[in-house]
Amino acid sequence: MSLTLRYFCYGCLLSSVTWSSSCCSTSTWAPPTAAPLSNQPHRGPERGGGRRAAAAPANQDAELSPEMVFQRDFVCSQDIFNEQDQQAADSGIPQTRLLTCSFQSFSPSLPSASVIICFFNEALSALLRTVHSVLDRTPELLLHEIILVDDHSELDDLKGALEQFVSSELKVKLVRNDKREGLIRGRMIGAKHATGDVLVFLDSHCEVNVLWLQPLLSLVSQDRRTVVCPVIDIISADTLKYSASPIVRGGFNWGLHFRWDPVPPSELGPDSSKPIRSPTMAGGLFAMDRSYFNELGQYDPGMDIWGGENLELSFRIWMCGGQLLIAPCSRVGHIFRKRRPYGSPGGTDTMAHNSLRLAHVWMDEYKLRRKLQCRSFKWFLQNIYPEMSSTALNHKNPPGLMNRNVRRPTVLQRGRLRNLGSGRCLVAQGRPTQKGGAVVLRSCDPQDQEQEWALDEEGQLVLSGLLCLDVSEVRTSDPPRLMKCHGSGGSQQWNLSKSSRLYQVSVGQCLSMSEPMGPKGYVSMAICDQSEAQQWCLES
Ligand code: LR7
Ligand code: MN
């Protein structure tokens, strides 16, 4: 069977098995590995030398919900590529669009785009990979310009060598900030220089996939108050490998941190290429009509460096008459780094500063909002994010507290949680009753009650009937800990997939044994892959 065929029929294979795994055996289907991408700047199409590399993404089935299995099933019956998708397969970038996307057609008169990329001390190769991918995979007519905003970087590479590159590309412009502004004011500076119809913001370490722009522009052109995000595929910070993301949508927690949520079935519809309404956006990658961006008040210029602007803009869009969508057929890869490679001047926590500004303006009545005739935050919660509304407004389940009035979720499976890479079992490092305690891998002992986990219908992993396995949504590189069960999903929601990976819905990563496996048996969260270090078996 060819690689391509295996990829097409993946959903069909999956549909014959149940989603939640109870087995430890390795999947019968071995996915082909994705073609490695070099970190050198490249010009897409000629790479790969005509090689057909329709590689399945590494974490493809780690996080399939029943709805997604259905989506892929649907895809299987339509075994075709369009020309551009075929080009993707030939160019070495993994084909991550669902096949239903091949049937989309676009108006010949789409608006033009100004792509704005702000950067601070970005690796030149990553920045050029972003720019080249846009130049290579965007139709000439639709690309008005690329505006690079250098936020007062210090790296030498970003001086002469970058200028040389820019001078050879007609459509690429470079704006340099005289002082460090942060990404929020940086984007506003970029927008001020832009003259295309639609602003498209990208982070400086992305790779756009084929046909990435048309679905975004098409939705914006149908309604200028629609703001559209692509699906953000994963580029590994360690290997630079590009792999598909599951289709999830944006939410937030009560600490005002962005998180990924599963898409409610009502939003999916029968055709998986349909745009998905998203309460919030991750922030870096989106398309917005330029005049609407100005009309809506751009960004809050009082926000510094990094953080908070994504939720602020999302609330403003929804509350002031617009809508925020994710176009499942537009795919852009983004390097997810474990740590940001920069601080903020003076070492202030700009995320907290920015979030406070956001809360003051949007989370209760405030005069600034009257000008735009915006709705209330209560309206937003009830209509756009009802999942959160129930945790805030009912007072039965206030944020951060276990809801005692609701029945306990049904346990789906119980047993020891054995890691295939080490053969050891996941246990509390100290007492299993200790809140905030770490979890580690130790020898499995069937007699030991303290090794018993329960996976319930809400995706909670409960140790010894007491505490839940929880990840930090603030510091996503921290290892998971045992916390009081809060019953509102997110940081405590896990999917045990067919291929035995434990996918954490909120941070979009998988639970992994830390390598090399030391005597302490540490575990950590990592980008999902096929390794045994990430395979877990819940065995009774
Ligand atoms: O002072 C700065 N000046 C800058 O120009 C700090 C950053 N930047 C640039 C930086 O070089 C990069 O191109 O701004 C861009 C975003 O910074 P990142 O890549 O450090 O941010 P991130 O990817 O960690 O964080 C996400 O949340 C941010 C909140 O402020 C921004 O909205 C980012 O754009 C956003 N990234 C994405 O949405 C990509 C998907 C990640 C997820 C989830
Ligand atoms: Mn980024």
What's the helix and strand layout?
Layout: H1 3-8, H2 10-15, H3 66-76, H4 83-91, E1 113-119, H5 124-137, E2 143-150, H6 160-167, E3 172-176, H7 183-193, E4 198-202, E5 206-208, H8 213-222, E6 226-236, E7 242-243, E8 248-252, E9 258-262, H9 265-268, E10 276-277, E11 286-289, H10 290-295, H11 309-319, E12 323-336, H12 350-362, H13 368-371, H14 377-383, H15 386-392, E13 411-419, E14 425-428, E15 439-442, E16 453-456, E17 461-463, E18 467-470, E19 481-484, E20 494-496, E21 502-504, E22 509-513, E23 523-526, E24 536-539
Parallel strand pairs: 1-2, 1-4, 2-3, 6-12
Antiparallel strand pairs: 4-11, 5-12, 6-7, 8-9, 10-12, 13-16, 13-24, 14-15, 16-17, 17-18, 18-19, 20-21, 21-22, 22-23
The structure holds ligand LR7 and manganese (II) ion (MN).
The site of ligand LR7 has 23 residues, from β1, α7 and α11.
Give your account of this protein's structure.
Helix 11 packs parallel to helix 12 and helix 14 packs across helix 15. The chain is 24% helix and 23% strand. The N terminus is likely disordered. A hairpin with a 5-residue loop joins strand 20 and strand 21. The chain has three domains: 101 residues, no CATH class; 226 residues, Spore Coat Polysaccharide Biosynthesis Protein SpsA, Chain A (Alpha-Beta Complex); 129 residues, Trefoil (Acidic Fibroblast Growth Factor, subunit A) (Trefoil). The chain is an alpha+beta fold and 540 residues long. Strands 19-18-17-16-13-24 form a six-stranded antiparallel β-sheet, with no helix packed on it. The longest helix has 14 residues. The site of ligand LR7 has 23 residues, from strand 1, helix 7 and helix 11. Manganese (II) ion binds next to loops.
